[in-house]
Each structure stands twice: as structure tokens, then as C-alpha cells.
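Trying the structure run again after the queue cleared.
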Amino acid sequence: MQSIKNITRSRAQESSAAIERLYITMRHLFNRGFYKPMGVSGDTLREALLSLRPEIYGSIAEEKAELNGLLYVIERLPIGIEECRFINLTSDEGYSKSHFKAIVPPKRRRNCYRIDDEQMNVEITRGRSDIYDIMTHLTFIFIESHKIKDRVLIDDNGEIARDWVKLEQAIHQEKKLTLEEREKAISHVSNVLGRTFAEIIDIYDAFGTAASPDRFLHVIYHLGKLAIEEAMGGAKRTITFSPILRERLGHHIHGEIWANNIKNVLKQNGLLERPIHIISANMHSVMNSIFAVPMFKSKFKDKDDYFIYEELSKSGNGAMRSKIEELALKNGMIAMPDTSGTNIDVQIFDSAKIDFSKTAFPSAKLAEEMPVIIVMDYAFGEQAYETIDELLKPFKDGDVRTFMNVESVSIMGKAGILEGNKGDIMIPSAHINEGTGDNYPFENELTAAMFEGEGIPVYVGPMVTVLGTSLQNRDLLKFFNESTWGVSGLEMEGAYYQKAIQSASKIRKSINPDVKVRYAYYASDNPLETGSTLASGGLGTTGVKPTYLITIKILEQIFNIQ
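Done. C-alpha cells:
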């Protein structure tokens, strides 16, 4: 019998086991109802995250503070959360009807409410993935806070380093800091964080807001302050899950309301029995692809179409975007801002009301029954299953069930790439669920040949649907890429979309068993490349061309343009 005692596990295996531990632990803590992240109940979560060492959290396992990872996380958490000792995750429990003002993080669509000086409530309406996301982010900032505490507390008697005293003085200053005062504070913070003055200067402004340009100092101070108070015997930070959230999670409550709203609008407009094409994309690419070029071609005579799309994507061009939306609303578009709590807005396009001679698709060849296009904003992780599963169910009006004629489902999104660069395109041939190995091969209507000659590299192969983009590390991703899995990229929704589509079409027979599916992603980052992870910043205009190229290829198929 072969000896097993000398067989060592690879880093990829250790990372995979760490992700599994994180997943199981987070579900256990959720069922338990509360935990203390830096107490005994948070041990397993912290150890698993430190064992995993995700790329996005950079130097999490080192003594020095991680700046890019901290910025990435802070942009996804509500302003002021670093000051709160108690964080309560809730369902939609009516706070929107109260005097509390909703705080929405810049990079995550979730409503948060500051209850008092010590408590922040975070509304979870997008399923388990939202909980995993926020729990890993909170675990990261609490680990960072204890690094600050370890550098600041000189001894067990509570003696504090001089740098911390000086930072505290700067924080409590009433008036705005002068340049000299700010640089003095940064000098002290660099010692506290174990980072150079230059490193902090480089990232300082990214933390700032119009109301609080020196927010970086406040974030560091309050993280350290709570950790120091814990170490000196004060109350430990606590994360709780409301009873209503625990009762509702997994019951598709928000997804069902969302889907019924859409079907009711289709019914009211006589569109329910027409051929339907569902597209998961952002709220501008389909509308702009149809209407923008003819509207602005004369204004940008010598420029190509993608230049127009880039102009539209610039923050200062709201007036141009409004003109297109106004035209679209007059030509068969119905806008449905979300009211269900899913945070997924919807647009419905009735092609019978579009004058195609005045669009970017004048050669559209449409059947007698003109198609209806439903564009839904991006879902988040497992929420993709909840929303598409509910949308594909028959519409019930009393005892009458109406099956929808869904001809295609198209998913256009952004994903991490494992072989190319930011802005490249990935065409998946299958989705693999990272946690379980469940896999969903499918016939993709989009092919690499369709994107030839456009100057953008295209990669074809399976893609892995991950528990959270912030939980990936180099070893695990290299294994997925270089082993026989041959994975070309990673994202968070694909397997969930395909699971819902397959069950509706192949098992439940609520939609056409031969429904066409289209998946294409553009690369937002390459987590295997240092300096190209999500924490390194956004795409800028690099993402504009692949976004519109994918959208146009989807629309060409729907409009039967060869």
C-alpha cells in the first residue's frame, strides 16, 4: 500500500479548502444569528481568510497594512461603518419609511442606515452572495484594524505610541486641515501602518469625498480606536443577522416581486405572448446601441461609432444620455426602475414601435410577430438564480397560467480573465461552480469568429463561477487555468443563470426547450497579474468598446442581421 504520510497539499488545494471553510463558516454564523469577528466565534473566518490570502487583499497576512485592498473594501461598505461597533444585517424591514437616511456605498447597491453612533444596519435584499461579500469585507477591515492596534499599543498598561496621539489631535481638529497639517498627519499614519509616506500620498485622495477630503485619516483612526478599545477590555465589535433576514433568505421574496412586476407590465402593454428576448446587461448599452449613432453621427462626423459610445460614458455628458433616453421612451421603451428591493432596474423594448430605419440596425429582418426585449441590470451572485428562475415561470392571473415565449437569454457582463488583459473578451463554453464542481456545459450562440477583425483578443473556454471575486488567490486561479479544467475566466453569476435556464427549459418545461443562450464577458481585471486586480482601479474607457461590441452582436442575432 502506497504511503500517504509524505504527500503534501499544494497551495491550490489549501486555498480551495480555505474557501470551503469560509463558505461553511459563514453559513453557520448566519444560522447562529450573531458573532464577534475578533472573538472566538470569528476565529475560523479570520484563519481561513489569512490562509487563503486573496489577491485583492494583497498584504493581508503581513504586518504592514494593505492600502489598495482597504480602498476596494471601503468603497463597497457604507460611509461611517468603520466607526460602528455593532453591524446589523437586515432584510428590507421598512427603514426606507423612517427618518433614517439611506447610505449607499459607491460600488455596491445596498441601502444602509446609521442607527446611532455605534450601530449600522445593512439591508440584504440580493441573497446569500451579498452576505458572503459583506462578511469577507468586514473580516478584512477588522484584521487590518488589529494590525493598527498592534503598532499603536506599546504595552499592556495601555501606553499609546506618540504617532497615534498626534493622529488623534489632527482628527479632532474642528477646521479643515492645511496642507502642512495634513502631511504631518500622514507622516504619523505612515508609521502606524508600516507604509511609506509616498505610498499613502498616492492613495490618500481616492478615499476622500467632497464632504470629507481627509477621510483616509478618519478611516484609519476609527478602525484603530475600536481595536484598541477591544484590547483594553471594552465591548467587542459584533455582527448580527436580524430574525426577519434569517427567515426570508432563500425564499425568492424580492425576486418574485421583481419578476411579477415585469410580467404585469408586459400584460398591461399586450406584450406577454409575443416572442421575448431577455438580456442581462447594464442600463445603457442596449438603448445606446439602438439609438445613439444615428442621433449623434452628424455631431461627430469623422469619428467611428465607438467614439460616440465613449463620449456617452463620460460623467459630464448627462445631457446626451438624456436625449437618447427621451428618444427611446418615444420609440417603444418602457423604463422600470426597481421597487422590489432587488436593485435590478429593467427596460422593456417593444420592437413594433421602433422605426428601424432611424436606428443603428436599418437592415433588421423581423418576423411578423415583432420581438420584445427585456433588459435587466446586473444581478449579484446567487441573486442571478433567484431573478431568472422567477422571471421564466408562467404568468399567473387568477387561475389562468400564461407561458411566455422566451426565445433567448443573453448575458453580457464583466469578469476576471486568466490569460489576457483588461478589456479582452471571453466567450464561455461552460460554467463551473467553484464551491461544488457542479458544471453546466451549453451551446453558446456567440462565437469567437463573430468578434474577429475588431482589434480585441477573444478567449474561448469554460468559466468558473466563484463565491466572491474578493476570495480568489493566484494559486487557485492558476490551477483552474493550467489544469484540465482549462478555465479562461471567473465571474459570479454564470452558473446560477444557467441553472435557472436549464431547469426552466429542460425540466419544468415553462419555456421553449430549445431556448437560445448567449454569454460573453469583457475582462475587468486579471487577478493573476500584479497591478491588474480589481483593487488596482477601474477600466476607464477600456471597457467601452467590448461592452458595445458584445451588445451589438447580441442585438444582431435578435434582429436577424447576418
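DSSP finds 17 helices and 17 strands in the chain. Worth checking whether this holds up in the mutant runs.
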